[in-house]
Amino acid sequence: MRRAVLLLVVALLGSMVVFAGGQKPKAEAAEVTEFDWRNFEGTTIRILANRHPWTDAIEPLLPEFTALTGIDVNLEVYPEDQFRSKRSVEMVSGVAEIDVTMLMPMQEGPRWISEDWAVPVDQFLNDPLLTSPEYDKEDFLGAALDSETSTTYAPKGKKYLVGIPITVENQELMYRKDVFEKYNLSVPKTVEEMYQTAKFVNENIPGMVGIVMRGKGAAATSQWSSMLYTYGGNWLDDNGCPSINTPEAIGAFEMWGKLARDGSVGQELVAYHWYETTTDFSQGRAAMHWGPCNFNAIYEDPEKSKVVGKVGYTRIPKGPTGLSIPYIGTWGLSIPYLSKNREAAWYFIQWATSQDIVKRLQLEHMILGGRKSAWQDPQLEKYLPKDLIESSMASLEVAKPFNPPVIQISEFRDIVGVVIVTAIQGGDVKAAADEANRLVADAIGKSGECP
Amino acid sequence: MVERKTKTNFSIRGFLEKRASFVMTAPAVTFMTIMIIFPIGFTLYIMFFRWSGGVTNPPKFIGLNNFLNLFKDARFANALVVTLYITAVGLLLQTVLGTAIALLLNESFVGRKIIRAFLLLPMMATWVATALVWRWMMYPKLGVLNFFLEKVGLPRLLWLSGNATVVPSIIMIDTWQWTPLIIVIVLAGLQSLPREPYESAKIDGAHGWQILFRITLPMLRPVIVTAMVLRTVDLIKTFDVIMSASQGGPRFRSENLNIYIYNTGLFYFRIGYSGALLLVYFLIILGVTYFLSRQRGEISF
After folding, report:
1. Does domain A2-168+329-401 have CATH number 3.30.300.30?
2. Per-residue pLDDT for B2 more than 60?
3. Fewest beta carbons less than 10 Å away: which of A441, A444, B100, B138?
4. Using one digit for the tens of pLDDT, what is the confidence trace for A283-332?
5. % of chain B beyond a pLDDT of 70
6. What's the rounded Cα separation, in Å, for the pair B110 and A110?
7. Using the beta-carbon criterion (under 8 Å), do A116 and B252 form an inter-chain contact?
8. Which chain B residues in 19-48 lie under 8 Å from chain A, judged by CB atoms?
9. How much is the pTM?
10. Tens of pLDDT along B32-71?
11. Alpha-carbon gap: B97 to the closest alpha carbon of chain A (Å)
């Protein structure tokens, strides 16, 4: 008996010390003279991905990549929270080998850039030995590529591409075509018109509010960012100091509050996240929705929506300065500095963002990609409304990332969320914005340098 | 050449038999060191640094600055007030309600066992799930609570979305969920009370309220205080209800210390500052627990 226990202990201790080390085949360092998909045959790459429609759509296509290149793929998929924390741990510890990772540049970019975690992909993109002549890099939508550019987040740093975009979303104004027709309303061209229209609906159409958008503090900041840009404001000024108490920013806050109180559900908007806005709009309780373009999937689904075929899509209206700058959200593929198979990793990114794959994902799975050719394909009109395609394409040339370009995004958003709630509740926006600006300067470590 | 043989009779078995106590505890000790002692030690160390958790920007020593910043931090002051608010009101409500219900359930009536079982249900349910259900019920527009308020002619409330109503709403959820714990503890205490004092009281002609306030409650005091200590620590630490129901909003009106520390450490990348906050938080819990435990020690029968 005693012997058995001791053996068990030895076995346990043994298993703690010994763990299998993975063998990794390396590509032969042969002389490469021209681009060839099979140059890195025999390599195995490890990909870390978020559980996302893109991942579900690309997974069945992986054998095609292996057949084309001879590169084996280990795809590891985790739900978004675990995905982010697992990757953070691996990056900080510096021991794991990740060859390709999904990355949301407006969320993680500032940190990745300040830590130098991303291998600049331009070096591969511009190398004719590593990039197929058929890979048309001019085909990417302007804002999609901008959102993957380091200087978008760190204007004074080195300029390089953090990754290549795989999915995009942008801000749209969605409206009920039937309601607008019945009450003889015209599609608003300016924010002021949008406010008047929303107010009219609130006052004249029973059981319906003018507009819904997010109001729940920090969660609302991404949707509010389009209003900020459209008013000519921005998160930071040229010196990197927070600028959320400028007249432009205050105008954007005030407009959010006015819309909430006079043209929407009032103070209850403070409870509104994406779920509440889409529920109201899809159940016919709102005439307009200030939201992301991909909610069209909900609105055109007869099982979830009472407004199928009744929704019009348009660019967000112009602000007082004549600008209409929606936000863009992007997922991309990046190569972490930990990768020992960078070229093979680039081959995967190149394949996954090639015209052919992007077009197939967009047409077969409604994964909205970053390539113009996929958006311009006439087949797309079978699946997406024409006005959505047109307004999205135009938006995706000028859009800006939805987050402030700082590492302390969460804190920045929490602080700005307070001003948004104050505006909805009809409080003193100027005082709240001044206070928020001071707190943000403190949070991003600029309290000494900023006014 | 003569081969020298090792004279020590070393064998793994011999070693294991002699040092069994070390070997057997090694996994637990290793686990404790990695999972408990190291994190605590690291927190005590990092609280004197400014560090954003990065590799290229290593921790920078700033002495006591993290602690000095506490006094200037309005969100910390707010979190302290919210923590006190939730703890004080929650504790009062749960103790009074719990003791009252336990006293009722101690009487014999038809269906007592079924009602006892039903009253324990909230405690059994999954915390996050119940908080989410409460969030739906408190939803201003379509929530069932506002529906009932309107039915009886009262104005609708903003519940979790109102500056003034959010903390009461959270206390309401917590009370619904955790009063049963106090009921269970007090009920167990009631059933172990000696019978003699009651008999003497009856002989002396004491009536119901006198028995309750002069005999039952004083004798129950150690039990009630024990239940209060348990609830106090949990109330100071309230996390899951707030996280699922309001995330600390609106305008940080429901952000208690636990939520604030969670944000600063994990999302704001202020690792050093959150270490300082944790120490203060730890001292508060220690102080309150010590104070309450002393209350209990003074009583004996």
Report:
1. no
2. no
3. B100
4. 999 999 999 998 988 998 899 899 999 999 999 999 998 999 999 999 99
5. 95
6. 66
7. no
8. 20, 23-24, 26-27
9. 0.85
10. 888 889 989 999 999 999 888 777 778 899 989 999 989 8
11. 30
The position carrying tokens 């009461």 is B168
Partners of residue A111 in chain B, C-beta under 8 Å: 54
Percent residues over pLDDT 90 in chain A: 82
Size of interface A-B (CB pairs under 8 A): 76
Q: How far apart (Å, rounded) are the C-alpha atoms in residues B205 and B203? A: 5
Structure tokens given for A406:
């700082």
Whether residues B112 and B11 share a domain: the answer is: no
Give the contacts of A163 (CB within 8 A, at least 6 positions apart): A103, A105, A118, A121, A148, A332, A333, A334, A335, A349
- CA of A217, closest CA in chain B: separation in Å? 7
Contact criterion met (CB < 8 Å) for B269 and A418? no
Residue whose token pair is 């797309």: A380
Residue A26: band (very low, low, confident or very high) from pLDDT cuts 50, 70, 90: very low
- In this structure, are B91 and B13 located in the same domain? no
B58 and B51 Cβ atoms separated by less than 8 Å: yes
Tell which CATH classification among 1.10.10.10, 3.40.50.300, 3.30.360.10, 3.40.190.10 matches the domain A170-327+403-443.
3.40.190.10
CB contact under 8 A, A271 and B160: yes
Residues of chain A whose beta carbon is less than 8 angstroms from a beta carbon of chain B are 6, 9-10, 12-13, 16, 92, 94, 111, 114-116, 216-218, 265, 267-268, 270-271, 407-408, 410-411, 414, 417-418, 421-422, 425, 443
Q: How far apart, in whole angstroms, are the C-alpha atoms of residue A166 and residue A370?
A: 6
User: Domain residue spans in chain A?
Assistant: 2-168+329-401, 170-327+403-443
